[in-house]
């Protein structure tokens, strides 16, 4: 049995068979292809507009390339016809990239005739459970799905609830991520690198893009981190209209109390304290003795 026949045996014949979808409304142009699996030339498949997920040449991609070389693409991608010709990938961007590396000319694709909102929801749902997603990718994906669902007529609260139930993140987390999707790309990189907290990111998302760029510049110039207190003050100043670069620098360079660190010589302490005392007992005794000493000095 050829490798192609092996792939044919495990492939399903339509989108409805695979996903149990309802009968879709088809365009006259691709009526015969709607819901069917078709081998499409790779050059006719185009990236989804504003696709938020990376396609990375990592170890996982190498494994996918090896699998495609041996067995072909076993799980079809999903795409929809483009008005300008060819097809827009809805899901399967990594398989498409791996197929190119593997030297393939075509890949199996399920053709769907769907509008922008439906395509966006399918695209996000197909990728959101991946383990290697960056915070910025998840934020942009949630934002795209949320906007699509609202455009379809779902109320804001219901959209958040539905996204939460499907993705497994809390409504509060999703709400925050939707907010940080508006951040400047450089701030999103800090978020991905865990050099900026999500709550701080939410605060900064209320600023104009130009002000966000200034915040990023100051953070990099000074090599400082942004506390939640800092971001709250910056957000409030932005709301009231008196936020400028000097004010931001004042916030981010405020003097922080230095922590006094005291180190004792263990051998010297052994002459005065029991060797088996716990750290808590030792600290309590030291504080008590210092209190007594202070009281005598004041007497």
Automatic annotation (TrEMBL):
GO molecular function: DNA binding
GO CC, alphabetical: chromosome
GO biological process, one term: chromosome segregation
Classification via SUPFAM superfamilies: KorB DNA-binding domain-like, ParB/Sulfiredoxin
InterPro entries: Chromosome_partition/occlusion, ParB/RepB/Spo0J, ParB/Sulfiredoxin_sf, ParB_N
Location of the ParB-like N-terminal domain: 38-128
Alphabetized Pfam families for the sequence: ParB_N
Recorded family membership: Belongs to the ParB family.
Protein's name in the database: ParB/RepB/Spo0J family partition protein
Species classification: Bacteria, Bacillati, Bacillota, Clostridia, Lachnospirales
């Amino acid at each position: 049995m050829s490798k192609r026949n092996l792939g044919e045996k495990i492939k399903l014949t339509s989108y409805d068979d695979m996903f149990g979808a309802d009968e879709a409304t088809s365009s006259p142009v691709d009526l015969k292809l709607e819901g069917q699996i078709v081998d499409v030339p790779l050059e006719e498949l185009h990236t989804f507009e504003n696709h938020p997920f990376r396609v990375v040449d990592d170890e996982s991609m190498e494994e996918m390339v090896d699998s495609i070389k041996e067995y072909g693409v076993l799980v079809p991608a999903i795409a929809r016809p483009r008005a300008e010709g060819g097809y827009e990938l809805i899901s399967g961007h990594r398989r498409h990239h791996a197929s190119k590396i593997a030297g393939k000319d075509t890949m199996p694709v399920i053709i769907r005739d769907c509008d922008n909102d439906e395509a966006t929801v399918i695209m996000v749902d197909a990728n959101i459970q991946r383990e290697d997603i960056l915070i910025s990718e998840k934020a942009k994906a949630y934002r795209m799905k949320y906007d699509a669902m609202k455009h379809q007529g779902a109320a804001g609260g219901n959209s958040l609830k539905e996204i939460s139930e499907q993705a497994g993140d809390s409504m509060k987390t999703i709400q925050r991520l939707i907010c940080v999707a508006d951040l400047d790309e450089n701030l999103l990189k800090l978020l991905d690198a865990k050099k900026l907290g999500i709550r701080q990111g939410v605060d900064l998302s209320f600023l104009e893009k130009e002000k966000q760029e200034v915040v990023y510049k100051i953070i990099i110039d000074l090599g400082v981190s942004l506390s939640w207190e800092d971001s709250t003050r910056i957000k409030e100043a932005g709301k009231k209209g008196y936020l400028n670069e000097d004010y931001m620098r004042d916030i981010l360079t405020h003097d922080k109390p230095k922590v006094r660190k005291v180190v004792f010589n263990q051998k010297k302490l052994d002459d005065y304290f029991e060797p088996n005392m716990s750290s808590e007992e030792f600290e309590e005794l030291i504080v008590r003795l210092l209190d007594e000493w202070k009281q005598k000095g004041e007497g």
